[in-house]
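Internal ticket - ligand job 340, uridine-5'-diphosphate:
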Amino acid sequence: MSKTILVTGGAGYIGSHMVRMLDQRGFKVVVYDNLERGNRDALTAGILVEGDLHDTDTLSGVFNDHDIHAVMHFAALAYVGESVHEPSLYYRNNVTGTQCLLDTMHQHKVNKLVFSSTCATYGIPESLPITEQTPQRPINPYGHSKLMVEQILKDYHVAYGLRSIALRYFNAAGCAEDGSIGERHDPETHLLPLILFEALRVQAGGDPADTGLMVFGSDFDTRDGTCVRDYIHVNDLCSAHIAAFERMHAQPAMGAEQFNLGVNHGYTVLEVIDACREVTGIEFNYNSVARRAGDPPELVADASRAMQQLNWSPVHADIKDSIRHAWQWFSAHPPNRLQT
Ligand code: UDP
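stdout (structure tokens):
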């Protein structure tokens, strides 16, 4: 009989791709999402229960009504800048919200969790590439909130037997290969969508000289002066969740574990722009502006532990795959400001 997975935040960017993949792999899916930042129409499968993590009556009802086998927990706020200005929101949603979930799981004797953590828990790493042993010293409330949950997961394993795998994502990118679902953030702050919005604007006849695309910082100590990031395709993130779930089955003695998820290769902002020009065939421009507060110069994963222990590897390690899939999605679903 197929197992039922509860996906919190399943209407969000990564969560909705997870729902789609779980469905394709034969799992039953229940989505729990408050739809504050998620999109109902991003759901291609599963049963949606609309609710907040703090609403433990509704959450408990999900466990009463469904035979939940394991939880994949995506529901969280994830804007670094916003977390600096609104830390209360971040600790409330990401930390106490998660605690509500974990306590409800405990009450209902569900003891398997895959958790969305982040490379933002490392802050400015003291060495590169970043391994799971690299000291975690977050530099913003978002990173702190995720690190706090990692600690809670360790403590809940010791005390309550909760088994968990925290997956520390590097930069999620791309969309479903078939263009069925994609990425919609409001506001959009991520590099790849913003580059593609600029390409769309120029494609629609906009003057390349009027570019709104900004490159934050050109004086970092990197090969071309712009920041380096490790971009991982959203479906590679999702396949790692399935691998994590399988590991929890194969290793009944495991407790709370952590894995980096990246492709072990970084691209500078200018390299991402060049790759987007190549994939789209559009010659758009950008403006070099001052650094954005809190941007570490270089974040590149050493994901070899995930590759070995989860028996997982990214199939879209070339960033052009992510760009191609995102371009397909954004061309069909341009942001409101570009719609005529
Ligand atoms: N970036 C940029 N212009 C933008 C948005 C992002 O130059 O309009 C840079 C940002 O400074 C960082 C990289 O692109 O070096 C990736 O940023 P993003 O916000 O996509 O992800 P983050 O690394 O902050 O999680």
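Auto-summary: Residues 191-229+264-301+317-334 form a domain with the UDP-galactose 4-epimerase; domain 1 fold (CATH 3.90.25.10). The longest strand covers residues 112-118.
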